Amino acid sequence: MAYTRKDVSTLTAAERRRFVKALLEVKRRGEYDEFVRMHIEYYVSDGEGGLRTAHMAPSFLPWHRRFLLELEKALRRVDSSVTLPYWDWTRDRTPTSAPWTADLLGGNGRRSDLQVTTGPFAYATGDWTIKDGVTDRRFLTRDLGRARDPIDLPKQSDLEWALADPVYDTSPWDSTVTRGFRNKLEGWGSGRGSTAWRNHNRVHRWVGGVMVGGASVNDPVFWLHHAFIDLLWTRWQRRHREHRYLPAGPPAAGTRPHGRVVARHEKLPPWDVTPDQLEDVGGIYRYA
């Protein structure tokens, strides 16, 4: 039977405790850091050669859908009642609202070094040491809202701009495309400020700290953010039922995207699964 992913702001006190406890146990077992390393490995930009799966590519959404499912399986091995909550950043928009509470993810980093000192993932607890990152810092960092260079979270209108596009993605299937739902949601743009970072990308930069870059999984909010991104994909699918993941087939030989993107029925590394198989997960979970 399908289980339910809930809005993090609606979790009961007991649900919050179980979710945090399961995350900490997955970390204690060493499994969590495997997820960090996997994301770093697959965080490949379209400026690099070879296949791109996790970012700057059509498979951004199915890749992260499977990634979330793998973490959720690990959590549910610890506690079968736990599911991934999602953070709706169009509604919970302040550094003191959920999920930034002491009983969930803790709050902002301190001004001097951005170290998170509150909540269960603070370095001082001894339960959340950063082992794989882009710096040698061992503590979780955040810069909510970027005090020195303020940035706003996306609004509902920003989401609607993406959701209204009926086409999933377009050639050349990378960060430069200006049409298609995938990149409008993923959020690669040009210029500075709001035009450079849209939707998904802007949220990573609003959180700041370790959430900027390939090691972003080190902040547990990564999962809540991407659960909401996954929910938005399901909303797009319901709105545009006649449209599907693109490209349907591999780009032609001799074209720039050839060999660099995953087509609908091709395997999605590192798993033995295709985007086609990940388009309908209603038998596994649903969103409240």
Describe the structure.
There is one protein chain. The chain is an all-alpha fold and 288 residues long. It has one domain (3-287): Orthogonal Bundle (di-copper center containing domain from catechol oxidase). The chain is built from seven helices and two strands. A two-stranded parallel ribbon has the order 1-2. It is globular and about 55 Å long.
A few lines on this structure:
This protein is an all-alpha fold and 288 residues long.
Number of E-state strands: 2
CATH topology: di-copper center containing domain from catechol oxidase
How widely separated are the two ends? 15 Å
Count of helix runs: 7
What is the N-to-C succession of helices and strands?
EHHHHHHHE
Rg for CA atoms: 18 Å
What is the percentage of strand-forming residues? Answer: under 5%
Low-confidence stretches: none
CATH H-level superfamily title? Di-copper center containing domain from catechol oxidase
Main β sheet profile: 2 strands, parallel
CATH-derived architecture: Orthogonal Bundle
Helix content: 25-40%
Instruction: Provide the domain count.
Output: 1
Look at the structure and give the CATH class. Answer: Mainly Alpha
Spatially, the strands of the biggest sheet line up as 1-2
Overall geometry comes to globular
Given the helix and strand composition, which structural class is it? mainly alpha
